[in-house]
Fold this protein.
Amino acid sequence: MEDSSTSTTFIPILEQMSLADATARLVDLPDGTRAWLVSDYDEVRAVLTDPRFSADDQLPGYPRMLPAPPAPGAMSFLRMDAPRHGAVRRVLTPSFTMRRIERMRPGIREATRRLIEGMREAGPPADLIARLALPLPSLVICQLLGVPYEDHEVFQENSRLMLSIDSTPEQATAALMALGDYIRTLALKRRTDPADDLLSTAVQQQEAADMTDEEVVAMARLLLLAGHETTANQLGLSVLTLFEHPDQLRALREDPSLVKSAVEELLRYHSIVRTALARVAVADVPLPGGQTVRAGEGVVLGVKRANRDERFLTSPGDLDIRREVRGHVAFGYGMHQCIGQTLARLELQIALTELLRAFPDLRPACPPQDIRVRHTAVVLGLESLPVAW
Ligand code: HEM
């Protein structure tokens, strides 16, 4: 998988960023404004833990990566600062503990096996993205939230439109509204007829957390978006990357107990959240490297570069599924660190294990140059990944 693009838009800049030089610098954003690109490992963590950097995308200077102006509250607590952020996030934390997520293991395994059987029955070549990488996280988040999976086309298409740099502002706004309408109807039902799902929990705790109806809708929309786009992309890229590193693929096949460290290393190696991690300074803040971000200036975090920082780990450009990588920032850092990370890890571990077990000879079904990378999305991923066995 190579990026032959010579465009000077922001995403290729992030992709081609020199690993040797991580000095914070001002870069051009797609809308013509400028923001700091911070990609040194220590500086990324410093920004993500400093309350003088806000996650509120309604503040002037917040880096705009998508065509549609951000709708107020659209991204729920992801775009809130303390103390409100904590109050809203706490509604969800009991549902994402290790113990609660571990209870989902048999269900996730069963769903994975069913999808893999579907793939086998359809026969090779099969598109791994359409057959497994996208439906698996979608099924899981739907079950967790209490959203009927039969409606997946509604939210998959609308999430894609919301998160794509190729959408027109009108398309992105319409998608946001459509997703909101869909969830609002479901939330209304849960109010009178609660079930054992996250949407019911949110509705029940709405008053205690002092949340408006619209905040409940935004929370569910965030989970729906974050719960399937990210994991789906990471799974597709992980399989492709293993194809590109046959020695690593062989090692994982021979010793499936390596799957935990393999998933962690693949998360670090790709760091798929490329342009979505951003902040705006609410005061002048000197960075550890010496540059000063002025109040009102935006910051985009170069997570991939940070995760390949020599000072963070040795041989950062190598993929080594045996290394015990700790402290990478692929799930962010600080108070907004991904609430779904335990779930994402579990899904990725199960999917890789089951896939390699079911198809001992799994291989790409097209030349690498034919595999299309989704460069236009704020989260890196693949359009499709044809495989054979
Ligand atoms: C490979 C998969 C995933 C990756 C790489 C990923 C990455 C991230 C990152 C980098 C952040 C921090 C954003 C920021 O600080 O601005 C984040 C936050 C978040 N993620 Fe994930 N995520 C993944 C899977 C999931 C899943 C499966 C869910 C839900 C089930 C989820 C739900 C969330 C939510 C709700 C937040 C906001 C947390 C907050 O603001 O307190 N993510 N994720």
